[in-house]
Amino acid sequence: MPNIRDLVGAIRHRDGVEAAVVLGRDGLLIDSQTVPGLDPEDLAARIPAIIGPADELGDAVQRGALMTAVLEYREGLAIIEVLNADAILVVLVRPDANVGRLLFELRRHREHIAALI
User: Fold this and answer.
1) Domains located in the chain, CATH noted
2) How many angstroms separate the CA atoms of 94 and 99, rounded?
3) pLDDT tens digits for 51-79?
């Protein structure tokens, strides 16, 4: 049976993916694989500050809690996938990557991914 390390490795080795990071809601790193030069602990520590306000917006517009966020930056995208009440997956991709399939698979397999944690 695959474990969280297998999942992180499989995501990281997709074409265009530069990082796959699993963290707790508290911002503590659970597991990661990244390109050299990227600090996964620093990245993980910054994510809770995004989740809270996004959940508040969801409540205000009657959409519920955040499930997936895609943030586009000049040098690529950050995909934030809330797996369950305790864990979050962050995937960084290059700007030329095809994220459509990745987003579909993350959404489709969210519960299976969460079960690995």
Assistant:
1) 4-115 (3.30.450.30)
2) 9
3) 999 999 999 999 999 999 999 999 999 99
